Amino acid sequence: MCFAGIFLAARFLIVHFALLTGLWIPIVSGIAAIVLAPQFKVFKVDGKDTVFIAWLFSKKGKPVNWL
Hints:
By secondary structure, the protein is an alpha+beta fold. It has helices spanning 2-17, 24-36, and strands at 39-45, 48-54, 62-63.
């Protein structure tokens, strides 16, 4: 869901403010979404599977407790 939201926002901004046309709009939007979207990864910690979230603007991953 994060990827889709960032992709749509980037696409909207590129269409209205950039001089890109055609196939370049979704390509640039996709690259921006890949770079900016958070990543969820599962690691074994103390014998339990723990989900961590990592983001471009954070220094290290944080455990997700709401899953």
